[in-house]
Amino acid sequence: MANKSSVQDMGSGSVPRLMLGLAIPAVVAQLINMLYNIVDRIYIGHIPGAGASALTGVGLFLPILMMINAFAMLAGSGGAPRAAIAMGKNDRAQAQKILGNCFSVLMIFAVLLTVSFYIFAPQLLRLFGASSVTLPYALSYARIYILGTVFVMVVMGLNPFITTQGFARFSMATTVVGAVCNIILDPILIFGFGMGVRGAAVATVISQAVSAVWVVSFLKGRRTLLRLTLPDMKIVPEIILPCLGLGISTFVMLSTESILNISFNSSLSRYGGDVAVGAMTIISSCSQLITLPIQGICQGGQPIMSYNYGAGKKERVKRAFICQFTACTGFATVMWLLMMLMPGMFANIFSSDASLVEYTVWAMRIYMAGIFSTGVQVSCQQTFMALGQAKISLLMACLRKLVLLIPLIFVLPFLFSNKVFGVFVAEPVSDILAASVTGFMLFSRLGRILDSPAGVNGMGQGSRRDK
Length: 467
Known about the structure:
By secondary structure, the protein is an all-alpha fold. The protein has 16 helices and no strands.
């Protein structure tokens, strides 16, 4: 009865109340995930005699970690909305095939990434800037983490299928279980057993393994609406390709984050030195306080929009979008005001160095000047994904980083006497331009999208809906 109720609630009842119930656990999960990543760095940074080098080495692994996450979300973020659309059309068999196909692809990704990253880890880490001092720490952490790639694939790739069924609290618990496990194991393995960086990596892999077992147990159990079964794991191109096509926008957003970090740091290092790079590290951490909750809100809105789009209930899709849009823009605006009015409060959380804090306060007001528009850009881009619009979603995902931000990081310094100002101001310029374009595209196309058939075998278009 609980399962049946969860499905009915997607297509009936109060949209704001339903979205609140789905979004709050997702936001909490995002914040917990951010918290235990920060705690992980704190532990590593306090390793006696090697904290600074160890922390730098582990930081060099970030581009590889982002790529692993990107491949996991390629299947997860693309398959979950399409499964929800199928459920909205009362096609449970098709939704289960989507789940099974995505699982198979995730396992293929896990094997390929584990082998390639494990073999080429030394070369990649040197490419990312590892020195003879930091490379041993980076390599020790990287190779252990890489061996746990399969667990990352399961957790990040399959957890969206739990959320999209309406089990938001269970989805949140996936993150909580892993976070608590990691926080407990880190000090035991790093300090208690004297394993150092290797202990941090082992703790992370064990935590991800626990979360993976948690996810698979649910999708094989009796509560789930979509069950993970062996027959559905046979890869069918007509099923998996549209999922990958839809997920490519999230893949691009995650995979290009490493390029973006390299672009910012290289320019800031050239024009502003270590203090500018240090300020950017703090600002990036602060920006997650805005972007991660917004992503959590959109995770709450996606199942409602996808399900009701598949069910042909246009008005509920519109109400869900309005709720999502209002929540995202409202939250981003409030956080923008806090960052503008009290940047010192946020900077002091991450550093007690007076000169670095002072520099960060100046830089944060420039970098965050357009962050209020993030709510518009993310909520509209994620709505395209929820409605199965793969091509336009990919275009909007590429717009901010690849088309605008990365080129502006290198161009704008030539237009200002203060080169560092030119680097930092690239962020608000790209934020506002990307939000304007994405918002215009969504509002101008939404009516036509909702009037089109919600197929699950194509990219937002498909078979005629049953009368």
